[in-house]
Amino acid sequence: MHAVVRDWFPDEGWGIVDSPHTPGGCWAHVSRVQAKGLLELAPGETVALEFEHGDQHGFRYRAVTARPE
What we know:
The protein is an all-beta fold. The protein has a single domain, classed as CATH 2.40.50.140. It has no helices and five strands. It has strands at about 1-10, 15-20, 25-30, 45-55, 60-69. The termini are close together.
């Protein structure tokens, strides 16, 4: 599914991704980013998102994969 990066904290290695299927946001860790080169996402960037339910830093969803499109 398509999602948009809301925030990304490169110093901490995580961010928040929004989609209609993840109300309140989906927590994403740098280890889940599937990209060539630098593993960072940018606010406003569109990603292909796979997620799972789970409590992660106050978010009800966490990314399984986030791949820049």
